[in-house]
Amino acid sequence: MSENNFRYTILPIMPHDFFWITFMGEVNLDRLVMAHDAFTSHTEYKPGIDELLDFTATSIAQITITDIELIRQYMVGQPGRHNSKSVIVVNTQVEFGLGRMMGGSIALDVPVERWICYSLRDALDWLRPGHTDELLKAQLKV
After folding, report:
1. Cβ contacts of residue 11 below 8 Å, gap of 6+?
2. pLDDT value at position 140?
């Protein structure tokens, strides 16, 4: 999906039961919600499925504290996202801090296991241990 300079790709990794979502361009609250709605509307989506959110081609540094609270409120209303694993991959310490704040805020009301890191390898090691090399190779072919 594309909107101005913002794009995202939603890739179901069904043999491993998760979605790999990659973001590019300018990220803001409305665009994150748009991408999340597309994710939960995907034909392969099922409640409780895990996700890898890859922000390495963009930045989440424009997300504000108010946005984080709105994201928390939005996620509370998404029961299909409860009891899943979600990993966020970012580039900078600022984004890492924002990601931790977002995850910590959401965790107050939504039972989702969250982790944030700086590399796809670390994300895959956490999300699907033992399959990292296989998944990285498959992603490079897409």
Report:
1. 19, 20, 21, 22, 139, 142
2. 64
Which comes out higher in pLDDT, residue 124 or 102?
124
Across residues 86-102, what is the average pLDDT?
A: 92
Q: What is the CATH number of domain 2-141?
A: 3.30.750.24
More confident residue, 103 or 93: 93
Q: Residue 139: which residues within 8 A CB-CB, separation 6 or more? A: 11, 20, 120
Average pLDDT of the chain, as a whole number: 89
DSSP code per residue over the chain? -EETTEEEEEEEEGGGTEEEEEEEEE--HHHHHHHHHHHHHSTT--TT-EEEEEEEEEE-TT--HHHHHHHHHHHHT-GGGTT-EEEEE-SSHHHHHHHHHHHHHHHTTS--EEEEES-HHHHHHHHSTT-HHHHHHHHHH-
Q: What is the pTM of this model?
A: 0.90
Q: Where are the domains of the chain?
A: 2-141
Question: How many other β-carbons are positioned within 10 Å of the β-carbon of residue 89?
Answer: 23
